[in-house]
Each structure stands twice: as C-alpha cells, then as structure tokens.
Fold each of these.
Amino acid sequence: TNHRKSCNLVMDKAKDQKPWFAIGQEYTLLDTDKHPYGWPKKGFPGPQGPYFCGVGADKVYGRDVVEAHYRACMYAGVNTSGTNAEVMPAQWKFQVGPCEGIEMGDDLWMARFLLHRVAEDFGLLVTMDPKPMQGEWKGAGAHTNFSTRKMREDNGIIEIERAIDKLSRHHIRHIKAYDPHEGKDNERRLTGGNETSSIHDFSAGVANRACSIRIPRECAEDRKGYLEDRRPSSNCDPYQVTEVLVKTCCLDE
C-alpha cells in the first residue's frame, strides 16, 4: 500500500513546525546464493568488533557498491549525507537527510531503489531484513532523527523532552508503524541486545544505544537539537514512520 498520500496530508498540517528528519538506513549485501557477501561459504567470520567503521579487506566487504551508491544518490539529487560499515560484516548504513516533511520518504525510497540497481551491476543482492542472520549478529534498523523548529532553537531540550513524553504514551502504536508487519519483523531485532531496546518497553536516555529514544550527547550539552528514534526497522516504510512521529509529537493525534 502506498502511504504517501496520508503522510503528505499530515505534513501539510504540521508544516509551520518545520519537521526535519534524517534516516540512517542499514542493509546487508548478499551474494546471489543469499549468503552475506564476503562470509565464508560454509562458516562464519570472526566475532563482531573490528567491522564497525572498519578499514581493510579483511574487515569490510562491498565498499565499491557503497561508494557507487552514494555517487548515484548525489547525481540523482537525493539528499544523502554519509555512509559507514556496520557492526556485522557485509552490513552497511547510509544516511538520508536532513529532509523536511514529505521529502524524507521520497528521498529514502529513491535511495533504496538506487541501491538495488547499483548492487545489480556488481552481481550482488541487497536485503533490508531487520535480522538477516540469527544469533548474536546485529540486526538492521532505520534509526530516525527528528526535530521541529522549536527543538532546534535555544533551550529546545524542553521541546525534545516533551516529545519523548508523548512518544512514551504511544509506544505500541509506533511499533506497529515501524515495520511492514506491525512489529513482527522488528520482534526479531528489538531484543534488548546488540544495541537495541526491548520491543516491549519504552526507554529514553542520553548517548545510550540501548534505548528506544536517544538524545545525542552534543544535543544534551547544547540543550537543543533533535532526538533519535532507534525503533524503526530497516524494512520500514519511511512515510509511515515520519507520519506517526508528526502525529504524536506535533499534532497530538
């Protein structure tokens, strides 16, 4: 189902509040046999630790795809703002944003299309599954940064904390909006381990990767900025994610 129409209506209602978003899209590169790219064919790589933001052919797999993708995004006019290797080998992240309103969903969907198309040229597949490998391997999310004009102004921390209070009262509604199967996909990822919060509990904190909502340390120190919702899954619909954030935090719906 295309959720763009309802998202756009909500963004129009809240346009005076200038809602900004940035989404960190995590994904995993696969070989054509659906096995993570670069992994031993009949085994596993070494434990997680050296791969995050790694450098070296023994730590990162598929950088050519990543760099071709961000160039394609820039050429196409997608507002991309960074990439990095993730915790699990063959897992990567790219950031889209900051985008205002409906542009967040538009740009992320285009960036996803370009990623699949670029990977095709390298003979690889891309999965947005939030838990592509079972066990103690990190899942994949779509961490969503969100702010309004008041949050970005001096003493905006008050507005940030007010938004977090609202989010705490609508946890189940947000979980249902944060993956295509109303939480069933995210249930495999949001276990409380591997830098996630539990899908069953709402939490918030400063510079804490194990919370539902994280306030970046620099925002806490500056007392303004944005919040990061770490719950959306990598296969989320960004129109649904941004729509429910604005409904809860801006429109009190």
Note: The beta strands are 20-30, 80-85, 91-100, 125-127, 142-147, 204-206, 213-215, 227-229.
Amino acid sequence: MARQGLTATLLFAVLVATFGTWFPMGYIIVAMNGPQTAVVNWIRSVHCARLGGIFCTEESSLGGCSDNYTEQVPSLDLWCKHYSEEEETNILGDNPELNTFWAISSSFLNVGGLISSFACTAIANKFGLKGAFYILAALYITGTLTVCLAPLAGLFEMLVVGRTIIGLSLGSMCIIAPLYTAELTPPSVRGALGTLPIVTYVLGFIVATSAGFPMALGTETGKNGHCLEWKIY
C-alpha cells in the first residue's frame, strides 16, 4: 500500500478548516482593543441620547457644551461631555456604569466559549464533525451580524449579545476543528498540519492588532470625516 502524503486537496481542506475557525478566534479576542475609545464614545453617545442629551463633539465642546451639561443636568455630564485626547484615558474611570458595561461586553465572549466547550461533545455526536462545522459557522455569522448591526440599530446591548453568540460558536469550534483536521490527515503529515490552527490563531491576533491602529480602522473619524472605520473593523 502506497504511503499517503500531502496533496493539494488535503492542504486546501485543512486550510479551510483551520483558517475559517482559528483565525476569527484570534481576531475577535483582540478586536475591541484597538478601537476601544471609538466604541466607548459611541456607547456614550447612544446612552446620552436616551437620557435626552446631545453628545458633545470636539467642535460643540468649544462652545461650552460640556459646561452647560455640568451646570444644568449634572447626571448627563459623564455620558455627554467631550473628552480631549489627553483625557480619553479617564473615560472609563470616570464612569463606573460605562466601565462595568465595557467589562461585560469584553468578557462575555469568554463566558460563551466556556459554556459551549461543555456542549461540543454532544453537538459532534449528534451531527458529526462536518455537521457541527455548519451549525457553529451559522452561529458565528449570527453573532457577527448582531455586533455589526448594533451601530445601525443604536443598541449597544447588541455588543454583549453578539459577542456571547460568537463565544458560543468559538468555544466548540476550537475543539471540533482540530478533531476534524486529525481525521482528514494521514499520520505522516498529521504533525506538520497540526500546527496550522495555532499559526492561523496568531495570524488573527496580528491582523486585528494591525487593523486597530488609528491610521487603519481603529479610528473614530476617518480620513473623510466619516465615523465608519471602526464599524468595519
């Protein structure tokens, strides 16, 4: 019997299985680090509008917007006032409620992953590894769309819901993908191809970090003055 080795079809299948699961896992983990200030200010602007205020931009703050809120409605000050670049590090520290929500939105990705990791065996047994891939991919797409539609809907709560759904997908995916890859690959190349998940995982880190730079997509207002970049990111 001829010794089985690496073929183009096998390499393509393994790359799809690993890049499509471990790359987005690495990306989503650090995705909120780069545009943190932009996302936090968007949350503040939404909550400011809910309270009946008008969010202070850099231009409006020059006309005393922040001072008016402080004097007339002190409770709106933390949500509506403008922070200069030097003061941006104090946004979360000054607003405990905002700080709590930011911590929840960041950590619930891991909560979803923890819950899902206990369910992956049942999913794989019931639907098989390939079927589990389809289900988890649909779950990931649902979570991603929920997060992406949050700015359009004006609901920052959708960040928590979407990231939790993504975590539910990735928690099982990080277990299902290596099992699927191991079943596909012959023993002669299993060790070499087994390194691809961690390679694509780190690649997701690098891409997300690079895209989060202010000169890329991690900025609140882009080159043309439109606050679209961080939403694409």
Note: Residues 71 and 77 are 9 Å apart (CA to CA).
Amino acid sequence: LLLFFFFSSFSVGDALRNGLQLVPAMGWSNWQSSGGLLAAGYNIIGVDDCWAEKERNASGYLVPNGNFSSGMKALADYVHSKGMQFGIYSSAGAWCCQHTMPGSLGYEWLDAQLFAEWGVDFLKYDGCYMADFPTVLKDSPNRFPFTPPPILRYPQMAMALNRTGRSISYLCNFPWQFWGLEKDPSMGGDWVGEFCNSWRTGGDARPGFNLAINYVYQSEKYAKDVPSGPGRWNHLDSMEIGNNHSSFDKNGNLQDPAGMTENQEQAAFSLFCLVKSMLFIGADATKLEGHSLRTLTNAEVIAVNQDP
C-alpha cells in the first residue's frame, strides 16, 4: 500500500467555490443496480440515466418518465425525510448516454433551476453525445458561443448551479476524455477543480477484482496534474463490491469472474479509500450482506477516506 502514498504528496489548487464536498462524497448510484449504510456515511441516493421522457415539454423542461409518477420533488422530499441527500443525472451533450432522454446542452440554466426547485443536492454530469472531440476542438472558434466546445460546457453548468442559490454538489464525467484524446494528463488541467467538486478518471466501472485494481492504477497518472483535496476529488466510479456478476469484453471474452473474495473486496475498498475517491456503491444496496456489507461499512477504513 506504500506505493499509493504519492496520491497525497502534491499541492492542491483552487476548488469550486460552493463550499461543498470538503471530504469525498459517499452514496449509492442506481446505474449498476440499486441496515447500516447511512450510519456509515453513505448519505446520497443518486438517480442515474433514463429518468426522463425523450422529449422536453413545450416550455423546454425535462419531464420525469412513468417510473417517477409522483414527480422528482416528491421523491426528493421522501429521500430528505430519511436523512439523506438526493442526486440526479444529466449530460453536457444533446442526449444522455442511453439516448432515452435529452441532455442539458443549451438548457443549462433551465435545468439547473429545475433541479434546485426539486430539491436536488447532487448532480452527476455526463459527457455523451457531445460530438466527436477532435472535430469539436478544431472548429470550436467557429461554433462558440452558439455551440460551446465540450471543455467549456462543464463550467457553464457549474455557473448555472451556483446561480440557483441552492447548494448542489457537482460531479463531472470529465476531463479524462480529453486526457485520453491528447495522451497528456495536463490537458485536463489542475483548473478542473475550480468548476467541478469531483470528476471521473475513467470509463464505467464493471464487476471484478482485476478491473477494480485497474481503476486505481489508471487514476495514478492524474494525481500530479489534477490533485485531490477539500472541495475537489478524483472519482474512480462506483465500487463493485457486492456486485456478483462476471465482466466480459466487447468480444464476449471473460475479463473477470463473478464476485470477489473477502480479501479482494477489502483490498479494493482500502485502495479506493486511500486514494480519496468518492465512495459510491454500485451494487444493489438492498441485497448487501456478509463480508461485502462489513467491508463497505468498515469505520476505520472509511475514516481514512473522509479525513480531509
């Protein structure tokens, strides 16, 4: 584990000035799947992609689909009544990633105000359907301000959220896509922390020990150029502890067998905590038990993650 101590050895730049995420956020995201978790610190419930109808209404507002028949404000009120925070999802592109609902491109101010009115506390802001990155980067001077290039869409939503007057924590699925494009972590820039409370360092998490460890290794190359600190944290995506499914590559070849042993779960969780990643559970929270639940609620290991 000494190999990973370098994650805390770099100076930290400015953070987004909203006073939020002074320690890494903890919660549960329903993208991978859905007694003791709230007490351990997991206080955010996040609704991920596919929650809205495919078309906005006549006034331009997003419309929750039939899975949320009581409306998002009612759901947020219920979550708040349980002592938890409510998270929601959108994208900086024309569509969200599954192409079942609109993204927030061109509607940042409208969507931010709507999220505030609903009582949203946390926004996961994805990066799908943003046009081909090299093309957009090359012709962005001709498109801006009518179609801002991707690198400017995240601060635009940050400004919109801050203008609502509600404290909304902000997770950006950025800037790892630009780092990958340019093969240079400095392209993301230390400045990303000035408009995001947290940001993804790679693609979507999948089950398996080898893949979990690989996410940690991937984040290493961003530690110097985009260091974590109060109000600004790298995010390795949701933890797959307790998610007992196998992972396959695009050709159908097995990458990781189903599940992890207790020692593997403890190792993966310890590393996520040590590198100060946000702690979001990607397994079905209603089915967590045994060593998976014990690992995710280990108070001593969580204390390392939550120490600013």
Note: The chain has a mean pLDDT of 80.
Amino acid sequence: MSSSSSVAPSSSSSSSSSSSSSVASAGSDLDHLRTQVGDHVPSNLAQTVQVEATAASGHSGTVLLLHGLGDSGAGWLDAAQYLSTRLPHLRFVLPTAPQRPVTLNMGMRMPAWYDLKGLDDRDLEHCEGIDTSASTLFYHLVKEAERLQEKIADDSKSPSSRIVVGGFSQGAATSLYAGYQCAAPLAGVFALSGYLPKPAQLAARLESGRNRDTPLLMCHGTADPMVRFEWGKRSFEALQAAGVKGEFKAYRGMQHSACVEELDDLCAFLKERLPPLKK
C-alpha cells in the first residue's frame, strides 16, 4: 500500500497481489536461509538439547542458545528450563559444538565453535571454524522455521521472525557473527559475556545486510577476566555504529558467568521479542 498515491486501489486484484507478494517474500526468506546452509549437516546433532514448549497453545517461538568454550548444550539446560517456566510458549534448542583442538588450551580437543589462539585482544583472532559454526546455526534456524511455519497464521510473516538466537561467551560471539549475517529476518539476538568476532568484516557486511534492524541485548559482568568487560562494551559500540539498535547491560562484580538478574533481563527481552501469538 502506498501512502503517496491519491488513486484508490481497485479492490480485490490489488489486495490479492499484495497478499501474494507477502507470502512469496516469507517463502523466499526461508529459501535464502536454506541456501546459506547448503549441504551442511552438523556432525553431532544427537547432542542437541531441547526444552519443549509447555503452553496449552503449543510452540509459537524458538530460542537458539549456544554454549561457551568447553561446555555443551546440556550445560545450559538449567538456564533454559528457568526461562521456559516463565515463557511456556517458547521452545529452547541448545546445540553442542563439535570437538576440535583449541590452541589457547595447548591443542587439547574440546567442544568449541572455533579455534582461539589467546586471551589478548579478540579483534585480532582469525576464529578458524566460525563459518562452519555459523552454518550449523543456520541449519537449526531452517529446522525451527519449518516447525513454526504451521503455527504462524499470518502468511506475510517469515517464520524466522519468531526465532531469537544468542549464547554465552564463545557461543555469544558465534551468535553475533551468524545472526547479523543471516539471510532471513530474526526476532532478536542476545550475547551473554560475549564479543564481536571479526568486527571489521562483519561491519562491512552489515552495511548491506537485512538484519542490522534486529534488536540486540548484550549482558556483561564488570569483573570478567576471560572476556573483558571493555571488549564486550566495545563490541556493542561497533554494532551500534553499524546501525544495530539494542541495549548493553552491566552486572557489577560478576565474573565470566551468568546470574539470576541477567537471566531475568534475558527473559524480559525474550518476552518482548517473542510474545505469545494471539489466536
């Protein structure tokens, strides 16, 4: 519908054309996302942890939550269940990263979304393996969007717009990297004790990307010795400069961990971005 036109549209044909265009747009979003995935299939799907929606109305939104270095999806099960009791219409999907040698830990193999060389300025890290992990996130996005397609009565809405992605530490970094390069619209992105990997590369892609309008929540402890508070703040400012709108929350004295106050802030963000669908 054009507000600048003074000519009234001719009833049904104009309405039908607009509706068809919206449906086609929603469908093409999913097709673009499938193209991003290509033939990639995560190597350890069996380790994915899921917390199902318990609302009588069923599943009407999904949260993809990525763990940190050396952890697993199961390590965030308690947090997901805590959020699920407050947001029963949402389904939580917690993938587990594949085992890989991590240079930072003397080459030991452990679950990692990408390789880390050291604890110095993360802007300089090459993050070997992060593009494969981004494809893993896109794979789960496709599967969840397909699940949600049946739930969304409004065919003009892309099913991916009922999905929020995020994570903790390395999982937060991967979520920022993949979420703001995603070919389909998302409801939101969150990063807990995380940072923006490859900031120069991602900022350039954001200039032409469709998801820079996706709201962001970043949370960080002021006493974090692993991912320093200033790294998180600087990452947020870099995303802001690229056009991303969001909120940065600081937790005084919190180290490299999560707290109930932070989870409650995340819960409020999820409730705002993924409210229950009206029947």
Note: The first helix runs from residue 11 to 37.
